């Protein structure tokens, strides 16, 4: 199945699951991370870093290696850059990203999508891949749509 079809399946599953159950944002993040990782099992990490105080992210619901970074400042790494700019960032090769934070040595590429509610940054969705150039505009489009469900 191609990438777009996989995301279409996720959209249907996520919408029906999140619409049918009353849960807070953390619960929704948990469900979303699980749905995404089930469909894209080849991803190394898929999860959320939540804003816990100004300019600081903390690990939230995720699927992946237990060695995930616990805290990330807005001025560090891809997650921090996405959080501070409130925009999606795609990195084809993390070894070329200034001040990259290595939480898993297998990570080669990354996409980070901000979760914004009422103009406030709530969290970022962080997805790590094991191949150069693993993420593109298709991923950006669908992941941005999916985080809007939260």
Verbal overview:
The chain is an alpha+beta fold and 150 residues long. Strands 3-2-1-6-5-4 form a 6-stranded antiparallel beta sheet, sandwiched between helices. 36% of the residues are buried. It has helices spanning 3-20, 25-39, 77-85, 137-148; strands at 45-53, 56-64, 71-73, 89-91, 109-117, 120-129. The longest helix is centred in the first third of the chain and has 18 residues, at 3-20. It has 4 helices and 6 strands. It has a single domain (3-148), classed as GAF domain (Beta-Lactamase), CATH 3.30.450.40. It is globular and about 40 Å long. The model has no long low-confidence stretch (mean pLDDT 93).
Key features?
alpha+beta; 6 strands; about 150 residues; six-stranded antiparallel sheet; globular; 4 helices; Beta-Lactamase; single chain
The strands making up the biggest β-sheet line up spatially as 3-2-1-6-5-4
- The shape is globular
* Proportion in β-strands: 25-35%
CATH topology value: Beta-Lactamase
User: Class in CATH?
Assistant: Alpha Beta
- Tell how many strands the DSSP assignment holds: 6
Number of helices: 4
The topology string of helices and strands comes to HHEEEHEEEH
- CATH architecture name: 2-Layer Sandwich
The helicity comes to 25-40%
Radius of gyration (Å): 14 Å
What's the story with the biggest beta sheet? 6 strands, antiparallel
Helical/strand content category: alpha+beta
What is the CA–CA distance across the termini?
Answer: 26 Å
Low-confidence stretches: none
Mean pLDDT: 93
How many structural domains in the coordinates? 1
CATH homologous superfamily name?
GAF domain
């Amino acid at each position: 199945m191609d990438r777009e079809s996989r995301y279409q399946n996720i959209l249907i599953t996520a919408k029906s699951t999140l619409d049918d159950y009353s849960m807070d944002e953390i619960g929704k993040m948990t469900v979303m991370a699980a749905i995404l990782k089930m469909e894209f099992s080849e991803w190394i990490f898929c999860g959320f870093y939540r804003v816990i105080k100004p300019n600081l992210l903390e690990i939230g619901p995720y699927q992946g290696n237990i060695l995930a970074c616990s805290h990330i400042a807005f001025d560090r790494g891809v997650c921090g850059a996405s959080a501070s700019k409130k925009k999606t960032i795609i990195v084809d090769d993390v070894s070329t990203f200034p001040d990259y934070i290595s939480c898993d040595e297998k990570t080669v590429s990354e996409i980070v999508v901000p979760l914004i509610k009422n103009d406030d940054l709530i969290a970022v969705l962080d997805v790590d891949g094991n191949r150069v150039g693993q993420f593109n505009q298709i991923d950006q489009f669908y992941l941005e749509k999916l985080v809007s469900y939260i």
